[in-house]
Amino acid sequence: MPQDTLDVTALDRTTGDPGPRGVAVVTGGSGGLGRAIVRRLADDGYDVAVLARGRDGQAGAVADVAARGRRALGVPTDVARHAEVEAAADQVEERLGPIDLWVNDAMTGVFGTFLDVEPDDYERVTAVTYLGFVNGTRAALRRMVPRRHGTVIQVGSALAYRGIPLQAAYCGAKHAMVGFTESVRTELLHDHSPVQIGIVHMPALNTVQFSWLKNLMPHHAQPVPPIYQPEVGADAVSHMAAHPRREIWVGSPTVGTILGNRTIPGLLDHYLGRTGEDAQQTTQDPHHAIGVNLYEPVPGDHGAHGDFDDRAHDRSPQLWASEHRPLVLAGAAAAGVAATVGIVARVRRR
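Now predict its structure.
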């Protein structure tokens, strides 16, 4: 959408004071994981700006934030267009104040084998899912670096390290995002900047994306089980916002995928070649696709969840352990000491 047609809407609290946690921007915040992140950040006390193309979902997200007592701003934005992202960032700072947290989440996809995907569709996925992160990061850092304050969070994926069939464009974009983020992080470190940039790598999530991606396959798309609710991913983003670090891996499947690809990539190639296409399709789901959001948003407010509530986990023990590393390490150390004491005691009794 052209820059001069940006239509900004806001719901302000009566007091209009800034949030105690500051101002957050979430790209792709109108639906799916982005919608869950918007709600969680508002619960955390952030005033939240939602950058997305779909006005219906954006209005719903703005209402979610306002219902939690925080200020909300919706800016219709195509993140693939850097001028729109810059204009949106200006709108946010004019209406809500300096941006403290920027979460890049917007994505799209084409579900099909590489040779079946049209070049224009492949480029569109790359423009949104990769260049959208580049554009968002640039807009955020241009404002944060001079102030020497702020955090950028990239929503990554286990597929940023392990490519799978039927998602070449998405996997390529996520791989590129990792390399881009690592490069930018080293530049910030070189300049001794306190601005933080980190990645939260997600597992398969129960989001609406599987009902509106462009599907070239015969059956309905599904996330590869095990599936988690988007709130699990939102919890991880919330934790990184409060405790910035390089990466967070969400869910044991993400850990297994990333570590497995480092140790047995060839075996994974053959395993995914045999099972990957079937694992991403289902004939059991009664719901139908709701449209294709590749070039235009799908009308309606579709919320955060997809069609797989009956199979999705609402918590991750692995994420809890990752978020409580000092406690886990202390427990492990205590267990080690106890085991050593026990061994010594048995030796003395002999």
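Residues 111 and 215 are 5 Å apart (CA to CA).
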